[in-house]
Amino acid sequence: MTAAMVAGALVGLGVLMLALALAPPRPHPGTALARLDLQRAEQRERAGAVARDPRLAGTPAWFRALGHRASDVLASLGLELGQLRSDLSLLGRTLDVHLATTLLAALGGLLAPVVLSTLLLLAGVQLGVSAPVALSLVVALLAAVVPTLVVRSRASVRRRDLRHVVGSFLDLVAMSLAGGRGVPEALQQASELSDGWAMVRIRSALTTARLRGQTPWSALGGLGEETRVDELRDLAAALALVAEDGAKVRESLSARATSMRRRELADSEGRAGEKSQSMLVAQLLLCLGFLVFLVYPAMVTVLSGV
Description:
mainly alpha
């Protein structure tokens, strides 16, 4: 019964996809324009990712084509995946590569139980049909989720590092302003004092804004929107308000840097407290196991004597 239901669902999905391929729905003009803007943004994202990591240029063509096709399908369905895009931007990866990796992982998870059940069947072990099919679907789902979970975990670490760098960047800009430089010059010079990945991202955003004729704070705001770092967006808004008054900018940046350091200190203390609690639980479990190791022989002796 289960195999028949799964087979029917797959056949229905195939018929639906065939109908959509033969007679696609007519797109709305607003949807078509939004899709065009999204494609242009994706092209800029791919070009920027390749510029930051030249190894992406060596990705096989079929691999990029698979990810691009999956990205187009998701765009046609109206799925923007904003959080995933910002996480991939922090890691310097493109959405196409991630989607292709996810699809291949899901395919591997789908085929692994089938291959294993086939080997067991050749070895003489009789298996039903429903168990391998259900196991294949579960493993494929888990394998498809794992790449996204890994990306989210690594991106959270990088986002925290970027916030720390932004605090140091604010101090450097404030010192440059105190030396008599203007806001654009102070921002550019502060971004050139380090070659870490976070400062390189800030410097690239400022350089791109200068080439396009944009203001530096708009570039910082765009970087904050891309990476979903609120500190960069707040910094852009503050610079846009007080960009004409150097004294006010310096005071604002110093106050923001102090606030960010206090927040980072509170977060560090919170993480340290969580780790301390985890170590305490581990020690209690170890003590409990040692007590069981000591008491068990005596209990066995008493109970056997009774």
